[in-house]
Specification:
The complex is a heterodimer of chains A (about 525) and B (about 400). With about 525 residues, chain A is an alpha+beta fold. Chain A is built from 15 helices and 19 strands. Chain A has three domains: about 210 residues, Multidrug efflux transporter AcrB transmembrane domain (Multidrug efflux transporter AcrB transmembrane fold); about 90 residues, Hypothetical Protein Ta0175, Chain: A, domain 2 (Alpha-Beta Complex); about 120 residues, Gyrase A, domain 2 (2-Layer Sandwich), CATH 3.30.1360.200. The radius of gyration of chain A is 34 Å and the shape is elongated. Chain B has 13 helices and six strands. Chain B is elongated, with a radius of gyration of 29 Å. Classes of the chains: A alpha+beta (about 525), B alpha+beta (about 400). Chains A and B meet through α7, β18, α11, α13 and α14 of A and α6, α7, β6, α9 and α11 of B.
Chain lengths: ~525, ~400
C-alpha cells in the first residue's frame, strides 16, 4: 500500500471508529451498550409513543394585565400630582391585529396637559401620549409597539418556563418544549411515554394564580346582593370575587391588594387537614412571611380569602398571626387533585392562558408497530439493493456496499451527536439519502465502464470516471441540499425532520461515495497485477 | 453483468407519444380532483379527531355507532384498518374512528370528541371491576407505579431507588410483551406473561389484583384544531415552492435558466400526477404523504440533473452538433444508469409499500408512483423543454450554446 492510500485509509478508519464510539460510547457490558444505544438514538414520538401537543399562549392576556395596572397607576399618579381629569378608560383598538392597547384620558384642563405630558414621559415610558382629534381636553396613551412585543415575548418565555417546570414535576423523561410555527406564539410540547392527556393538559393549562386577600364583607348569595350592600358601587380599593360555599355560589367583597401571592411561595405540598381530608400546605419566602405575619397579626378575628385563579377556594377566620406557612383546605380535594394543585403552585403561575391547538397521543403499541414494520421494510429494501450491486458490479459492488453502510453509520452518529430526533418523515429523508447514495455509485461505475469501453487503461478509466461523475454528483447534491436548507429554515416539526436527515445524509454521501469508494478503488488498483481486468 | 450497451433510441422523435400520456394523466388527475371537490386531506390538514382502537374480537361496529349516537356524536366514520399486523400475522381487528372538525368544534374543548369516543368504548366493552385499572390501556409508567405501591418482590428494604428501577424494568418488559406482534397490544391472560424477564408468580398475582384485561386497546389518538391544520397545509405548499425556487436558482447558476425552468416544470409534473393518483384512488393526503412528495421532488430533480449534466458535457465536447440528436445521445449514454438507479430505488420503495405497514402505506404509495414518473419526466418532459427552447433560439438566429461550467 503506498503512503497516499495509507494516509487516506487512516482518515476513513478514524471516521468509522469515531462514529461507532459516538453511537455506542465505551460500554463495559452488554447492558451498558443497550443503555447507551437507547440514550443516544432519539426516536420521535411517532415511533416511540407519547403525547404531542401544540398550544398557543394567549400573550394578549399578559399585555392586558400590564395595561390594567397602568390604568390604575395612571389614576393614582394624576391624583398625586393633582392633575384634574374627568375619566380614564381603556380604549383598545381590537380591530387591528395584533390589537393596539390604548388608554383614554378625558377632561384634562388645557393648562395641565403639559404636566400630563411630562408625567407620562417620566413614569410611563412604555406609552406614547397623543392628541385626540376634535377633542382638545382628551389625550390617548398608546402602548408602544416595541413594548407590546416585549411584553408578548416575555409572556411566551415565562409560559415556556412554567410549563417546563410543571412537566418536569410530573416526572416525564426527556420532554421537549419549544417554540413552534412562525411568530404566532405557539409552542410544541412533546411528552414521551405519557398516556393520560386529560390530566397533563389540565396541569399545563392551570393559571394557578394564588392570592391571599382579606375579606371586607360577605359572603353574599349573589353579585347584586353584594353590590346593594354598598349602594351599587364598590369602594375603589375592593373587588368582588365569587366562590362556592357548601355547593352554592357565594360572593365576597375582598381587599383589592393581595396580602401575599403565589410569587411569594417557596414550596407547596399535598397534606391532610385535621379531619383527614386532602389539603395543600404552602410555605412563604421571608419577604412574604413578613408581610403575611403583619396582615394576619393586625386582623385577628377577620376572614382571609384564599383566591385561586380568581375564585375563592375558602375563607377561613384568622385565629392568630401566621408567618411562613399556611394550608389550603376545603377545596373538595381528592388526593390526586391536591397533589396536582401543589405541583402547579410550586411551578408558578402562568402569565397568560393557553389554548390547545392540536394533540396527538401515539400509544406505545402503535409506535412499536411502526418501528417494527419500518425497520423490517428498510432492511429488506437495503439488502435487496446491496445484493443487486454485488451481482451487477461484482468487485466494485463491494465498494458501493461499504460506502452505503458507512453512509448510514455516519448518519446515525451525526443524529446522535446533534441530538436529532428520528421521526417517520426523517426516515423519508434517509430513504432519499440511500437512493442518492446508490445513484452516486451507479453514476461512477457506469462512467468507468463507459471509459473502459472507449479503450482507456484501467487506472485512467477509474480516474476519469470519478472526475466526470463527481461533477454530476456535486450538482445533484447541492441542488437537493439547497432545497433541504429552505425546508429546514421555514418548515416546522415533520418537514424539518425530513430536512435534517436528508442534509446530513447527503453530506455523508459525498464523503463515502466519492472519497471512500475512491480509496478502495485505488487500493484494489495498487494490488492488481499489471494488465489484469477490473472487476466492475 | 450488464443490461444495456448504449442503446440508440431517438427519444426526441417519440416524445409526443409520451407527452400525450402525461397530458392525459394530468387531465385525468385534475378532473378527478374537481369531481371529488378537492383532494382528500388527512386529519393533519383537515382538522378533526381520530381514535385508533384494536379489539381482541371482531368489533361490533354497529353497536359502537349506536353508542356514539346516544352520546350525541354523529357523522363519525368507522373504518377497519387493513394490515395493521401485516408481518406479525396476529390479530387484525383494528378500527379507526374519525370525527370531522364540524362535529368537534361545537364544543369549546378540543378533545370532547376523543373523550366521548373513549367513554362510548368503555361503556360498550365494560369498565372492569371497581378500583382496577385497564392493563391493556396502561402505560409502562402506570404499571410501574402500581407495582411499586404493591411491592410484590419486597424491594422496599433495598431502598426506593432500587425498587423503582426494578419495577420500571419489569413494567417495561411486560408492556413490551403486550405490544409485541403476537399480542398486538391486547393481553388476554396475565398468565401468558410467564417467561417475560423478571416476571415471577408474585408479580402476576399483583397485576391480577390491580388490573383487569379489557378486550380493546386505544392505540393512537389525534386531535387537530382548525388553525394547525390550515397552517400546516399552507406551510407545506409554500415551503415546497420555496425549495423548488432554490433549486431553480442553483441550476440557473450552474447551467442556464431554461434548464432550471425545465427541471422545475418536470418536477411539478411529477407532483401533479402523483396527487392525481391519490385523488383517483381516493387516498388521503396525510403528513407522511407530504414527506413522500418532498422525497419525490428531490429524487426527480436528481434524475433530471444527471441527464442535464451529460447534455452540458456533450455540448462542450461537440460544439456544433444537432441539438436534439445530442440530447438523444446524452439520454442514451445515461440510460443504463437511469434504469439501474430507478430500478433499485423502485425496489426499495416497493419493499416499503409491501412490508412497511399501515402507517407508511400512503408514503410508500406516493414514492412508488413518484419514482416511475420522476424517471420518465427527466426524459420526456425536462429534456424536450430544453430542446424546444434551444430550437426556438436557433430559429431566431441566435446561436445557443451552453455556457461552459
Amino acid at each position: 500500500m503506498d503512503t497516499k492510500i495509507r494516509g487516506r485509509a487512516i482518515v476513513i478508519l478514524v471516521v468509522v471508529l469515531g462514529c461507532i464510539l459516538g453511537i455506542t460510547g465505551f460500554p463495559k457490558n452488554v447492558q451498558e451498550l443497550k443503555d447507551n444505544l437507547h440514550n443516544r438514538i432519539h426516536l420521535g414520538l411517532d415511533l416511540r409513543g407519547g403525547m404531542n401537543l401544540i398550544l398557543q399562549v394567549q400573550v394578549e392576556d399578559a399585555v392586558n394585565i400590564t395595561c390594567d395596572e397602568a390604568l390604575d397607576r395612571l389614576q393614582e399618579e394624576m391624583k398625586a400630582k393633582s392633575i384634574p381629569f374627568a375619566d380614564v378608560e381603556p380604549d383598545n383598538d381590537k380591530t387591528s391585529s395584533p390589537p393596539v392597547h390604548r388608554i383614554l384620558v378625558k377632561g384634562v384642563p388645557q393648562d395641565r396637559v403639559g404636566d400630563l405630558q411630562s408625567m407620562v414621559s417620566d413614569l410611563f415610558s412604555d406609552w406614547d401620549l397623543v392628541r385626540v382629534p376634535g377633542d382638545e381636553s382628551s389625550r390617548l396613551l398608546i402602548l408602544k409597539t416595541s413594548s407590546a412585543i416585549m411584553l408578548r415575548n416575555q409572556a411566551l418565555e415565562q409560559s415556556m418556563d412554567t410549563i417546563r417546570r410543571r412537566v418536569d414535576a410530573l416526572g416525564v423523561t426527556e420532554p421537549t418544549i419549544a417554540e413552534y410555527g412562525q411568530g404566532d406564539y405557539e409552542l410544541v410540547v412533546q411528552l414521551p411515554g405519557v398516556d393520560d392527556p386529560s390530566r397533563v393538559k389540565d396541569i399545563m393549562q392551570r393559571t394557578a394564580l394564588l392570592e391571599l386577600k382579606l375579606v371586607k364583607d360577605g359572603p353574599y348569595s349573589s353579585r347584586e346582593a353584594a353590590l346593594a350592600e354598598h349602594g351599587g358601587v364598590l369602594p375603589p380599593d375592593s373587588e368582588l370575587v365569587s366562590g362556592s360555599e357548601n355547593g352554592k355560589d357565594s360572593w365576597y367583597v375582598l381587599n383589592r391588594v393581595a396580602a401575599v401571592t403565589g410569587r411569594d411561595l417557596t414550596g407547596a405540598d399535598p397534606s391532610h387537614d385535621s379531619s383527614g381530608q386532602p389539603s395543600v400546605q404552602f410555605t412563604l419566602n421571608r419577604d412574604g412571611a413578613e408581610r403575611f405575619g403583619r396582615v394576619t397579626g393586625a386582623n385577628i378575628g377577620k376572614y382571609l380569602a384564599i383566591v385561586l385563579d380568581n375564585r375563592v377556594v375558602e375563607a377561613p377566620v384568622i385565629h392568630g398571626q401566621i408567618n411562613e406557612s399556611g394550608v389550603i383546605e376545603g377545596g373538595n380535594f381528592t388526593p390526586e387533585s391536591a397533589q396536582d394543585l401543589a405541583l402547579v403552585l410550586k411551578s408558578g403561575a402562568l402569565p397568560a392562558s393557553i389554548n390547545f391547538l392540536s394533540e396527538e397521543t401515539v400509544g406505545p403499541s402503535l409506535g412499536a408497530d411502526s418501528i417494527r414494520h419500518g425497520v423490517v421494510a428498510s432492511i429488506v429494501g437495503l439488502l435487496a439493493v446491496m445484493g443487486f450491486m454485488l451481482v451487477y458490479y461484482r468487485g466494485a459492488g463491494i465498494n458501493a456496499d461499504v460506502a452505503l453502510a458507512l453512509n448510514l453509520l455516519i448518519l446515525i452518529a451525526m443524529m446522535a451527536w446533534i441530538e436529532g430526533v428520528l421521526t417517520l418523515p426523517g426516515i423519508a429523508g434517509v430513504i432519499l439519502t440511500v437512493g442518492m447514495g446508490v445513484d452516486s455509485n451507479v453514476l461512477i461505475f457506469e462512467r468507468i465502464r463507459e471509459e473502459l469501453r472507449l479503450g482507456k487503461a484501467v487506472g485512467a478509466a477509474v480516474a476519469v470516471g470519478f472526475e466526470q461523475a463527481f461533477r454530476t454528483i456535486i450538482d445533484t447534491h447541492v441542488t437537493t441540499v439547497a432545497s433541504a436548507a429552505i425546508l429546514f429554515a421555514f418548515g416546522t416539526g415533520p418537514i424539518k425532520g425530513f430536512a435534517v436527515t436528508l442534509t446530513i445524509g447527503l453530506v455523508a454521501n459525498l464523503f463515502t461515495s466519492v472519497f471512500v469508494s475512491r480509496v478502495i478503488f485505488d487500493y484494489v488498483l495498487s494490488r492488481r497485477e499489471k494488465g489484469a481486468a477490473l472487476s466492475i | 453483468m450488464e443490461f444495456f450497451h448504449e442503446p440508440k433510441i431517438d427519444w426526441m422523435e417519440i416524445k409526443w407519444y409520451f407527452i400525450s400520456i402525461s397530458i392525459a394523466l394530468i387531465l385525468t388527475g385534475i378532473i378527478s380532483i374537481v369531481v371529488h371537490r378537492g383532494l382528500v386531506y388527512g386529519i393533519d390538514f383537515r382538522g378533526g379527531t381520530i381514535v385508533n382502537v384494536n379489539f381482541s374480537q371482531p368489533p361490533k361496529v354497529d353497536a359502537i355507532r349506536h353508542e356514539l349516537d346516544s352520546l350525541g356524536l354523529h357523522n363519525e366514520t368507522i373504518q377497519g384498518v387493513e394490515g395493521t399486523q401485516g408481518l406479525g400475522g396476529g390479530k387484525s381487528n383494528a378500527v379507526m374512528i374519525g370525527l370531522d372538525l364540524k362535529t368537534t368544534t361545537s364544543s369549546a374543548s378540543l378533545d370532547a370528541g376523543r373523550e366521548t369516543i373513549i367513554k362510548a368504548l368503555s361503556g360498550l366493552y365494560g369498565n372492569g371491576p371497581q378500583g382496577k385499572t385497564d392493563f391493556n390501556n396502561a402505560s409502562p409508567q402506570t404499571v410501574a407505579e402500581q407495582l411499586l405501591a404493591d411491592d410484590p418482590l419486597g424491594m422496599s428494604i433495598k431502598g426506593l431507588d432500587t425498587a423503582t428501577k426494578t419495577y420500571q424494568d419489569i413494567a417495561g418488559a411486560v408492556v413490551n410483551f403486550r405490544n409485541a406482534p403476537a399480542q398486538g397490544g391486547l393481553l388476554e391472560d396475565f398468565n401468558s406473561l410467564r417467561g417475560v424477564q423478571g416476571v415471577t408468580p408474585a408479580i402476576i398475582s399483583a397485576l391480577e389484583k390491580d388490573f383487569y384485561l379489557s378486550s380493546y386497546a386505544v392505540t393512537n389518538t389525534k386531535v387537530v384544531g382548525p388553525k394547525v391544520g390550515s397552517d400546516l397545509r399552507r406551510q407545506a405548499l409554500y415551503v415546497t415552492l420555496a425549495g423548488l425556487g432554490a433549486m431553480l436558482i442553483y441550476i440557473w447558476f450552474r447551467f442556464e435558466l431554461i434548464y432550471g425552468v425545465a427541471a422545475v416544470v418536470a418536477t411539478f409534473h411529477d407532483v401533479i400526477i402523483t396527487l392525481g393518483f391519490f385523488s383517483l384512488l381516493n387516498k388521503e393526503i396525510s403528513l407522511t404523504v407530504i414527506a413522500a412528495l418532498l422525497t419525490l421532488v428531490g429524487y426527480s430533480m436528481n434524475d433530471t440533473i444527471v441527464v442535464f449534466d451529460r447534455i452540458r458535457e456533450n455540448v462542450q465536447a461537440t460544439k456544433r452538433a444537432n441539438f436534439p440528436k445530442l440530447v438523444d445521445h446524452s439520454i442514451n449514454q445515461t440510460l443504463s444508469r437511469t434504469i439501474l438507479t430507478s430500478g433499485l430505488t423502485f425496489l426499495a420503495v416497493m419493499s416499503l409499500f409491501l412490508f412497511g405497514g399501515e402507517v407508511i402505506h400512503g408514503f410508500a404509495f406516493a414514492l412508488v408512483v413518484g419514482v416511475i414518473v420522476g424517471t420518465y419526466s427527466s426524459i420526456f418532459i425536462a429534456s424536450p423543454i430544453v430542446v424546444y427552447f434551444n430550437q426556438r433560439l436557433a430559429r431566431e438566429g441566435m446561436s445557443s450554446r451552453v455556457k461552459a461550467a
